[in-house]
UniProtKB/TrEMBL annotation:
This is 2-dehydropantoate 2-reductase. InterPro entries: 6-PGluconate_DH-like_C_sf, 6PGD_dom2, ApbA, Ketopantoate_reductase, KPA_reductase, KPR_N, NAD(P)-bd_dom_sf. GO terms for biological process: coenzyme A biosynthetic process; pantothenate biosynthetic process. Catalyzes the NADPH-dependent reduction of ketopantoate into pantoic acid.
């Protein structure tokens, strides 16, 4: 399979690097990373160790069976523009937040949604550290079966990536949104690792944000009980207790956050969502002060 990874940061490089063990992969990313990969290949360290030689480029061109998009949600419009120069059969979004698949749908008929629980950190250009072996779950964003999803799942598995092809992506996407709505803003605003949400007042804020997200999911016709959203949140808090969430890392580095595609998305609803509204307002305030954001 011929695969383009658009947004080869930590997760994109790890998944692209693992796929490169069996497939033809092009990593599209930042100049220093692209240059290092072109020179010496990609070094995977940590829980998986390998040196692979994917192609690397700053721009997208030509044809591919699959484009994997791993950019931040606010960069999805830029991904759409860049990928319009690529003749891709299918696009898979492995991104945080909601609305990405809908935007990518202007590119190709087959857009798949995915979730990733592999842990990845980029220490230096040309290298990526696998901090946890997880799973990729992928499938049609609106649910159901698809032979293309099966084929892509097979290609991932052949490359040794733990993969499940799921027919219930709507529920899984909302469950992931509930986890991100609970963890990301709370840890970013309080500057704490995920494990700080296991008890106390911050845990209460996170649970309320997740519960509101489940309510909004049900308003969209997706059967996500409050208990399932809370259980998913608790299990991710436990499994990633020592980790800093992506939004906490964004705030620490003075970067724009994905608040609009997470708490902002939940709050943009007919359902009452006071906790998500407050979290979104606080983060927007921080972004405004830091001269970031929309
Ligand atoms: O965005 C993140 O950091 C991750 O999606 C998660 C699951 C919250 C773990 O930190």
């Amino acid at each position: 399979m011929d695969v383009v990874v658009f947004g080869a940061g930590s997760l994109g490089s790890l998944i692209g690097g693992l796929l490169a063990r069996e497939h033809v992969v092009t990593l599209v990313g930042r100049e220093d990373h692209v240059h290092a990969v072109q020179e010496d290949g990609l070094r995977i360290t940590g829980e998986i160790q390998a040196v692979v030689r994917p192609r690397a480029s700053k721009t997208v061109s030509g044809a591919a069976d699959l484009a994997i998009v791993t950019v931040k949600s606010y960069d999805t419009p830029a991904a759409v523009e860049a990928l319009s120069g690529c003749d891709c059969d299918a696009v898979l979004s492995l991104q945080n937040g909601m609305g990405n698949e809908e935007r990518l749908a202007s590119l190709v008929a087959t857009v798949l949604a995915g979730t990733a629980t592999y842990g990845a950190l980029q220490d230096e250009p040309g290298s990526v550290r696998c901090t946890g072996i997880g799973e990729i779950v992928l499938g049609p964003p609106d649910g159901g079966q698809s032979t293309i999803a099966d084929r892509i799942g097979e290609a991932f598995s052949t490359a040794g990536i733990e993969t499940t092809v799921a027919a219930d992506m709507p529920r899984r996407r909302w469950e992931k949104l509930a986890v991100n709505a609970g963890i990301n803003a709370t840890t970013a605003l309080s500057r704490v690792p995920n494990g700080a949400l296991s008890d106390g007042p911050l845990s209460d804020v996170a649970r309320r944000a997740a519960r509101e997200t489940a309510r909004v999911a049900r308003d969209h016709g997706v059967d996500l009980p409050d208990e399932a959203a809370i259980a998913a949140l608790e299990s991710v808090v436990d499994a990633t207790a020592d980790n800093e969430s992506s939004m906490y890392r964004d705030v620490q580095s003075g970067r724009r956050t994905e608040v609009e595609a997470i708490n902002g998305y939940v709050a943009d609803s007919d359902v009452e969502t006071p906790v998500n509204e407050t979290l979104a307002a606080l983060l927007r305030g921080w972004e405004r002060e830091s001269k970031l954001g929309k």
